[in-house]
Amino acid sequence: MENEVMNIVLTDEEGVETEFEVITKLDIEEKEYVIVVPVDAEGEVDAVALRIEKDESGEDILVTIDDEDEFEMVSEAYETLFLNEDIH
């Protein structure tokens, strides 16, 4: 997946499509992650972390992070990145 900021459309288990803005892409321990937020969200909204994997045909797919330790690692990297940006 490229590093440019973009919007993506994800489909949930019920088939509902939601457009998300990709806030950033993170490379951590040889894995790639994206942090996304819903485009149409109003008020304060939580960002969602997803891991980038390859499907059988080599295409990028986004999967949820089920492992608590992995999720914590990605959350800490994201917070560190944006806290450092706010300071400068």
Quickly count the domains.
1
If strands are numbered along the chain, what order do they take across the biggest sheet? 1-2-3-4-5
**Secondary structure category:** alpha+beta
Note the gap between the termini. Answer: 27 Å
Spans of at least 5 consecutive residues with low confidence: none
Mean pLDDT: 86
Could you give the topology of this structure?
Blueprint: E1 7-11, E2 17-28, E3 31-38, E4 48-54, E5 60-64, H1 68-87
Antiparallel strand pairs: 1-2, 2-3, 3-4, 4-5
Question: How would you portray this structure in words?
Answer:
The chain is of the alpha+beta class and 88 residues long. It has one domain. 23% of the residues lie in helices and 42% in strands. The chain has one helix at 68-87, and strands at residues 7-11, 17-28, 31-38, 48-54, 60-64. Strands 1-2-3-4-5 form a five-stranded antiparallel beta sheet, covered by helices on one side. The protein is globular. The termini are far apart. The mean pLDDT is 86.
What descriptive keywords fit this protein?
88 residues; alpha+beta; 5-stranded antiparallel β-sheet; 1 helix
What is the structure about, briefly put?
The chain is 23% helix and 42% strand. The protein contains one helix and five strands; from the N terminus they run βββββα.
